[in-house]
Amino acid sequence: MLISDIVENLNADGFLFVDSAQAIDLLSALAQVPIGDDQGFLDSWNHLEQDQYMADGGKYRKRRHAVYAIQNAGEQAQLMPYQPHYQTVDYNPLNGGVARYFAPILDDLHHSPTLAALLEFGNSVFSQITGKHPWHIELHQFRIEARDGQLGQPTPEGMHRDGVDFVIVVMIKRVNIDSGATTIFDLDNNLVGEFMLREAFDMVLVNDRRVYHGVTPINQLDPEAEAFRDVLVITFKTPDNR
Asked: 180 to each of 147, 202, 216, how far by Cα in Å?
């Protein structure tokens, strides 16, 4: 699959699932090094911190956060000084309306060729679609846990949009869980897509202006073993998207 194919399909449907093999090939071509077995990148999900802003009182979510920016065509994404994550209650009725100061992403991840390739990939696709090049980019590392008979909620706010232009969700790891299906609805609330991110680097690209997205709850299979779902969420927003 080529970048041009991704642009065409995303323009047609407003979302696109890219399987692990295709994603790894694309990212490896962009990075000019093999992508897929970057243990420093993958292991960083073992060092997330508890999300302290869950209005439902849930203790099932760990995360880290960072902000990048691209100012001009051809530039690489640059890490920005630390800043909080903010969504209005219109987009996040559960946790919106407050500035949320999550633990920052660790330096090792910022130096990863895998992350650099993912940022270049998103920039290449989304800039072709919009014809615009300045981007405000946010990275969210998530670990959603299921334990003690309680469900883990990947999207506790329900079916939603993020208030950005585009979203990439990258599967990192699934351990001892069932469900966690990604669902896509159009703006008339019709189900238009449902699939599972199972393998590392399975990903979905979403046009946030055109569709809603969500993930079904996860449950623990073996009650004696840890159970979690790790993903990386990358959002791209143009400065004129208010």
From this structure: 15, 13, 5
CATH assignment, 3-237? 2.60.120.620
Taking 70 as the pLDDT cut, the residues of the chain under it are 53, 55, 57, 87-97, 240-242
Distance between CA atoms of residues 5 and 162, nearest Å: 25
Tens-place pLDDT, residues 45-96: 999 999 886 767 678 999 999 999 998 877 899 999 999 977 666 666 666 5
Answer yes or no: pTM beyond 0.70: yes
Q: Could you tell me the two tokens for 134?
A: 């300045």
Structural domain boundaries of the chain?
3-237
φ/ψ of 217, rounded to 5, equals -60, 155
- Could you tell me which of 7, 119, 135, 164 has the C-alpha nearest to residue 73? 135
Cβ atoms of residues 92 and 20 within 8 Å:
no
